[in-house]
């Protein structure tokens, strides 16, 4: 038979294996065009920390598109976090408009899998709504301040 030729891989183009984690910049490559305002790397880590704390409190963390949308329409308030790497984007592209209509702060993060990991679940989540709670009030206020300081392009 013949010799098997090995392809030389470009050292700049590395494909992460299962054990490796993508960096913030690499995750931004998979983000949708409409994902604005996007959280910075520092804001993203704060948001994930808030999600982790909120997941320990019952009924203070709403997860999933259907549940969050229903609670917003019923009048619940809080911070809404969207995943930026959703495909097809049509399933949730109306949600920022709903949040603006109800005057609720929202922001995008690069990865839905990271949102799920922050909640302590193996599966990712498209949308999360975090309600106020005295247990994590200081972090909640800091994230809210970050979101309000991030400008939304018109």
3D architecture notes:
The structure is a single chain. By secondary structure, the chain is of the alpha+beta class. The protein has a single domain, classed as Ribosomal protein L30/S12 (60s Ribosomal Protein L30, Chain: A, 2-Layer Sandwich), CATH 3.30.1330. The protein has helices at 24-28, 41-55, 65-73, 95-101, 112-119, 137-149; strands spanning 61-63, 79-83, 106-109, 127-130. Helix 2 (41-55) packs parallel to helix 5 (112-119) and helix 2 packs antiparallel against helix 6 (137-149). The protein starts with 23 loop residues before the first helix and ends in a 5-residue tail after the last helix.
Mean pLDDT, to the nearest integer, reads 86
Note the run of SSEs as H and E. HHEHEHEHEH
Estimate the helix proportion, in percent. Answer: 25-40%
End-to-end separation in angstroms reads 63 Å
What name does the CATH topology carry?
60s Ribosomal Protein L30, Chain: A
Question: In terms of quaternary structure, what is this?
Answer: single chain
Number of strands: 4
Uncertain residue segments: 9-17
Task: Determine the structural class based on helices, strands and strand pairing.
Answer: alpha+beta
Radius of gyration: 18 Å
In what range is the share of β-strand residues?
5-15%
- Classified in CATH, the superfamily is Ribosomal protein L30/S12
Please give the CATH class. Answer: Alpha Beta
Shape: globular
- The second-level CATH architecture is 2-Layer Sandwich
- Please list the strands of the largest sheet in the order they lie side by side: 1-4-2-3
The major pleated sheet works out as: 4 strands, mixed
Q: What is the number of domains?
A: 1
Number of helices: 6
């Amino acid at each position: 038979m013949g010799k098997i030729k090995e392809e030389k891989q470009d050292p700049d183009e590395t494909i992460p294996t299962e054990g490796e984690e993508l960096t913030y910049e690499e995750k931004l490559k998979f983000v949708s065009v409409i994902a604005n305002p996007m959280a910075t790397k520092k804001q993203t880590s704060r948001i994930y920390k808030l999600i982790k704390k909120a997941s320990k409190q019952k009924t203070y963390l709403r997860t999933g598109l259907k549940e969050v949308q229903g609670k917003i329409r019923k009048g619940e308030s809080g911070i809404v976090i969207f995943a930026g790497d959703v495909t097809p984007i049509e399933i949730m592209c109306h949600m920022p408009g709903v949040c603006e209509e109800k005057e609720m702060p929202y922001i995008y993060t690069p990865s839905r899998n990271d949102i799920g990991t922050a909640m302590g679940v193996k599966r990712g989540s498209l949308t999360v709504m975090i309600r106020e709670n005295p247990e994590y009030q200081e972090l909640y206020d800091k994230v809210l301040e970050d979101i309000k300081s991030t400008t939304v392009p018109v």
